[in-house]
Amino acid sequence: MSRTTAPGWTRREALELLGMSAAAAALPGIASAQSGVTFPKGAIIRTVLKDYPPEELAGGATLFHEHMSMAPDFLPRWMKFAAETRAANAPRGAGAGRGAGAGGGGGRGGAAAPAPAGPFFMQDADFMTEELTTAKREGISCIVDGGHPDMGRDVNFLREISKRSGLPIVLGGGFYTQPFYPKEISTMSEEQVVQAIIKQVDTDPIGAFGEIGSWDVMTADERKVFRAIGKAHVQTNIPIFTHTGIPGIAALEQLDLLEDAGVKPDRIVIGHLGNLVDPNVQVHRAICKRGAYVGFDRQGGPGDAEQVPLVMALLEAGFADRLMFAADTSSANQMKRNKGDGYAKTFTVFVPKLKAAGADDKVLHQIMVDNPRKFLAFVPKRPRKG
After folding, report:
1. What is the pLDDT at residue 102?
2. Cα end-to-end span (Å), the chain
3. Secondary structure of 280-342 in the HEC alphabet?
């Protein structure tokens, strides 16, 4: 079967793409030296178990936006709010169309298949350990959990599955989007929101603020949270990745708000922009030119056919250093045990399609290995907690 039509890569093919031998993968310091990437003095990547020198995570791909811990009712609520938003935005007499919850390529979009029977998979440590162990074997060296308290994220659960699988997990923090905010957000001042975020950092080993979102057109509360996240970043140096309403609504406004709060663009990923299908990639290019990262993070599904040309256009424009990839994996049907492609599918399913379209190994290594480490690495301003 040809590379173009193959459903995924073998472990050997993945290592070849990463530009390293099996021995180099086992010795991340060698792989890091080969890449030529440098980091600020004192920079670390903060994971739920420990802080890593960024060089130690060069032995495989890093996924900047996935989910390993959410409340059982999160996805059903998400689908309900998405359907309501599509209906509200649809022209009279038209179907729901491609509104705020439409699929983008394997993440939370589209109609969800019924979940397999049994315990909720994100509360089953044996199940999740198996999935993460498989992802590690398939070439993933680090994975970011994009949840936080308003999504029902369980820090102790993430600690357990990281320890058992041996796969480092970066813990997210912050607040998600308007439909999921705690009720008190609307009555809190901006400074009170800042302090609530700092409290998260002082309680748990937060390694990224994310996913921080706007559901559709930004609300006043969402703008307040974005400004607060920006101010919390200034106090901590913790990097930020966002959720944009589909298709890419408020992407530039999100970047404006964070920059106005004092965040440097290279500390920001504007997420879900694979859903903003524009052959001219105008918004994508504008974000790259400002120095922020463009997040393609719903990959490994039917939306890949639309995303591949967008990525290739940005590569041709010289923005390989501004791209970030992940799959926003969040449902049981995406898991390996349930015949899905698992947590590594960005690397094993989507990246081969880019290679078939003409992207070379050096560029793909940069996007999957170097860019996310550069983004996640920061010099802490506050001591680690937890």
Report:
1. 33
2. 48
3. CCHHHHHHHHCCCEEEECCCCCCCHHHHHHHHHHHHHCCCHHHEEECCCCCCHHHCHHHCCCC
Location of structure tokens 């424009």: 317
Task: For 154-237, list the strands marked E by DSSP.
Answer: 169-173, 206-213
CA distance 377 to 254: 22
- The answer to whether 39 and 377 are in contact (CB under 8 A) is yes
> What single-letter DSSP state applies at residue 219?
P
Q: CB-hemisphere CA count at 13 Å for 295?
A: 33
Q: Which residue has the tokens 């001591």?
A: 383
Q: What number of residues does the chain have?
A: 386
Compute the distance between CA of residue 339 and CA of residue 344 in angstroms, rounded to an integer: 13
**Pairing, β 45-46 against β 51-52:** antiparallel
Note whether 221 and 185 are within 8 A (CB). Answer: yes
What's the rounded Cα separation, in Å, for the pair 16 and 289?
A: 31
Arithmetic mean of pLDDT, 130-153: 97
Closest to 371 (Cα-Cα) out of 237, 287, 266: 266
Whole-number pLDDT of residue 114:
63
33 pLDDT above the threshold of 70: no
State the amino acid at position 325 in one-letter form.
F
Higher pLDDT residue, 92 or 340? 340
| Euclidean distance between CA atoms 344 and 332, whole angstroms | 14
Give all strands (DSSP E) within 10-75, no chain letters. 45-46, 51-52, 61-66
- Reported as a pLDDT band with limits 50, 70 and 90, residue 32 is very low
Cα–Cα dist 59/49, whole Å: 18
pLDDT digits (tens, 9 = 90+) for 231-244: 999 999 999 999 99
